[in-house]
Amino acid sequence: MSIIIDKIVIKLLSAIMRNLYFVAFIIITVLFSSCGKGGQGELVGVYNRKFRNNKIPLGMVYIPPGRTLIGMSDEDINNSQSSPSRMTSFSAFFMDQTEITNAEYRQFVAWVRDSVAVTSLGPTVAPAFFKAAPKGADGAGALGANRDIDWKKVGSGSLLWSKKNGGMGSKLTDMYYSGADALPGKNEIDIRKLKYAYSYLSSDLAVEGRKDPSKRRQDFIITYTDNPDPSNPNHHPSVPVYPDTLVWKVDYSYSQNDPMVKTYFNHPSYDEYPVVGVTWEQASAFCVWRTRFYESVASARKLPANSRPEYQLPSDAQFEYAARGGNVKTKYPWGGPYVRNTKGCMQANFKVGRGNYSDDGGLYTVNARSYFPNDYGLYNMAGNVAEWTITAYNQSAAPMLLDFNPNFTYVAKTGDSKYMKRKVVRGGSWKDIGFFLQNSVGTYEYQDQARSYIGFRCVSAYPGTDITYRN
């Protein structure tokens, strides 16, 4: 009897297994037919990897899409009529909550310093700081192949600059001032060596040459390099990154500002103060570095290369839209028509009156998070330091600009007239009178000039319609 039962069980199990195999075969067939290329001749699309698109970058705030009246909302003391009031729409973007601080800019300077140092040593002297060379046809490292810096090994730079415990400090003497340039008893980095070289594809040049069959992609690439080709109009000298600390003396000939020259950028007391003494070109280079810095991390996390659009300086119109904080026809970023609040306190850092720089709580610049933010959560969109924008200054450009995301750009070349090098600066500064704090007021500075009252902040476009929407 038990033998018969065993045979029946075996037959049942065999039948079940055959059915399971059949079902599995059907499922696999369906999966392959539906997910395979072509989808059995149907259009199924090629989708990018999904990831969270609603994460706000660290230190930034989200500026929602919308429309507002931009342009003059009060007196035009210059009678320039260069900024007529007009309704304008904007797409969403992220913006730094504060001006870029000394501490944040020093991260850029330190990265360039370490990059120059490691590159000067080379993979032969300091192989530990470089990634493995690409494999050649014989399986060995390709001879003469470019070696990328291994930033995980470089870390904070402590081992790189140390003269002990296997550090490379003793081999980096060329990075310091030497001979007659060195002060006795001091070992100081030669800041003239801290230059940032980079390249990018210019969409403006691509648009100009898109129908010219003789043009190649290299004709649209702008390059900043240590050895620019004089015959190539797209080549520029690499960008010195260290701020010009002498601006505190240059800008004010008859004023005792030597302590600011020596302490403002490097003293811990000023870590959270806005960086100044940077040109438009340096601010633009910082944006490129910040983009590449994030892209390297995104790549390690297997995120798409464009998971976060590039950082750049805000346009003139973007800055005004963000400064208004969602309000219409307001005079100042805080929404009211007065520079004092109901308690009689100043609401920004500016020149209150003739010879009066201190009633607002700061003689020079102040902490980047001073005063109340506007309704978008942005600090010091008026006062403290004026800020670079990406927009070229042209008083006659307003009538030509579109009524959505308006902007006018031009990157001046070395031989261009100084009038072609003017960039719009916004927000007014600690040394400006109240008129320049107005949302609608902008002025200009030359792109190669550094000032003690001009800083910057970055923006990044939001890749979508609105962060509150679900794709």
Automatic annotation (TrEMBL):
Q: Which residue range or ranges hold the Sulfatase-modifying factor enzyme-like domain?
A: 59-459
An example Gene Ontology molecular-function term = formylglycine-generating oxidase activity
Ranges in a coiled coil: none
Bilayer-spanning residue ranges: 12-32
Q: Which Pfam family is one of those matched by this entry?
A: FGE-sulfatase
Key words, A-Z: Lipoprotein, Membrane, Transmembrane, Transmembrane helix
State the InterPro entries in the record.
CTDL_fold (IPR016187), Sulfatase_Mod_Factor_Kinase (IPR051043), SUMF_dom (IPR005532), SUMF_sf (IPR042095)
Q: Give the highest taxon in the source lineage.
A: Bacteria
Name this protein carries in UniProt: Gliding motility-associated lipoprotein GldK
Q: Which organism is it from?
A: Pedobacter nyackensis
Taxonomic lineage of the native organism: Bacteria, Pseudomonadati, Bacteroidota, Sphingobacteriia, Sphingobacteriales
